[in-house]
UniProtKB/TrEMBL annotation:
This is Malto-oligosyltrehalose synthase. Signal peptide: none annotated. It comes from Micromonospora sediminimaris. PANTHER family: ALPHA-AMYLASE FAMILY MEMBER, MALTOOLIGOSYL TREHALOSE SYNTHASE-RELATED. GO terms for biological process: alpha-glucan catabolic process; trehalose biosynthetic process. It comes from the Bacteria. Residues 13-398 form the Glycosyl hydrolase family 13 catalytic domain.
Amino acid sequence: MPAKPVGATYRVQVRPGFDLDVTAGLAGYLADLGVTHLYSAPLLAAAPGSAHGYDVVDHRQVNPEIGGEAGRQRLLRALRDAGLGLVVDIVPNHAGVAVPAANPAWWDVLRRGRESAYAAWFDIDWQRGRLLLPVLADTPDALDDLKLADGELRYHEHRFPIADGTGDGTAREVHDRQHYELVSWRRGDAELTYRRFFAVSSLAGLRVEDPDVFAATHELILAWAAAGEVDGIRVDHPDGLRDPAGYLARLREAAPEAWLIVEKILEYGEELPAWPVDGTTGYDALGAVGGLFVDGDAEAEFTALDTRLAGRATSWADLTHDTKLGAATRLLAAELTRLAALAPDVDPDTARAALAELAAAFAVYRGYPPEGARHLANARAEAGRRRTDLTGALDAITRRLRDPDDELARRFPQFTGAVMAKGVEDTAYYRWSRFIALNEVGGSPTHFGTRPGRFHRFAAARHERWPASMTTLSTHDTKRGEDVRARLAVLAELPQRWADAVTRWMAAVPLPDAALAHLLWQTAVGAWPIERERLHAYAEKAAREAAASTSWTDPDPDFERAMHALVDAMYDDPAVSSELAAFAAEITPPGWSNSLGQKLVQLAMPGVPDTYQGTELWENSLVDPDNRRPVDFGVRRELLARLDAGWQPPVDETGAAKLLVVSRTLRARRDHPELFGDYQPLIVHGPAARHAVAFDRGGAVAVATRLPLRLAAAGGWRETTLSLPVKEMSCLFTGRVYSGSQVRLADLLTTYPVALLVPTT
């Protein structure tokens, strides 16, 4: 049966503790909210206790820890009863191997080696010897703790199989006969013999380019799609695959009616390849929408502040080159070694250096035809500029990379994507703290804001080319929640005030790493009030990801004590704490205006809007795992019922005004899709025109306020007007009716800083 159109989704992190039955209990609320489809985290069996589901261990069954197949059936019944569909997340690139016994295929490979029926499932370099498993302590005598028990090898809580006929002797003797070798956890990044997801050794790469592997790992999901039990599929990390285009063509052929979206991270100005998909998961929209509410005129002042605080000017291009090179040569050293081995005509060390430089210079996650040739040429030129001593090697390797049939050319794109993710998103974003509202997945921190004209061009192009692509403002992978970014955007309206305040605070509570200190102060003011333990956890993760003063592999206890002392001072130092709280309180109301504005734009613009769990109210989450915290749906149900009873909420700390915007916009899209079939920018006239963004979706008109502080300082809307497409329209947020060809924004936006207008007839 054909899948029904996907109008709007609501993302739920289904997991142990919030299982399929609890999720089923949300169906009525989600229908009332106005979404058409539940958008679920991965449902297949994952590693024991997995909080996210991206470490699938058994593709043949629904995760028993979230309710299994019976729970899935109960969820389907609840969704059908509420008139909702289902979109599921799938993970084709990798599988979870942290607990070998939980993954039958991996267990069999460990037991039988190359002779395993599942050996072809995993991207293993058997030419380099035994399969290395980085689980041991980093001590010379770690293997002394190895034991034999119940026909298995045991290392503390870890269990491993024993190959047939190899179980006699001591534990060390038995270990030395296996198809695998247990090694120090520190050797993982440098020596592993299997492809991983980024630098995560507990996630082993799958070879879904093999039709048999594709069939085995997708059989259950595709059976659901064929039975009409799945309406949409979200593909996790397609850039990690050997042949994304081929994979997506096979998936589309197998699920021709499914809404198919891909977690493809597009860099600034990059276009999605012409794949047989409906679009991306929306990070491109996130950047464009969020940028609308950032004042680009403040860029120079924030650059000057960053330079003064750091004691030097920071080049984003040089910083990201260095962090990407570090990712290529350290975190992903094992993958780099495997690539270099494919260039035997070049000295191994030279080949490694040349490949690492090319990856560090690659401007996008990976190149695809026909643009891939241009990106490779640009990377070659930049790598040659930085390393003139590598000219010969760069030329030889680049020639190989231009041949699509060359094994090196097939594997290198898998490497560049991992280098970009680890070097930029997971490192540089934590080191470059000029203005962290821009440091977001798929974002471009060097492009300071989005002017309305550019946004309109972006939205019109989406309507024309990818009308069913997802739009989003928050996901489980965003670096901070949408409302935190919206409040941080206010700082761009008062750069000098911010510079003065943060300079005082950093002098009062110094930290050797000024860039990290600036990031933490911005984070605090953006999320305040935030529980102390959450901010401590964030600070530790941010510092270790930045890897400038401490790191995951080599924590610096002295630095981390100073860092945690800074966080404590935010709560305990009376002068600092009171100033911080007062500053946050001052920027909170304009932050609410930005939140409502960006939410309306995201929900009303072309595409399929997603609402991440809980974000229909104010939500001050930070990076994972903070953004997976439990959501109080009881409060949301109660507030929605009050709204439906006629309550007109103020814009205040309850967040009910945001719930009003979300529910009324989603219901309009669901109930009147004919009003959202076009995209036309609307012209605003008058002295405050730059402070509004407005567009007509084919009947529904969205209007949002930009830069609210500067609007107020300039005297408000005054005689600023908006041209209406029809003579009489009503606002879905207030119920007011507006007649005539022009409406004064001072009248339209008197209750809320946003409006959604529809024709009265």
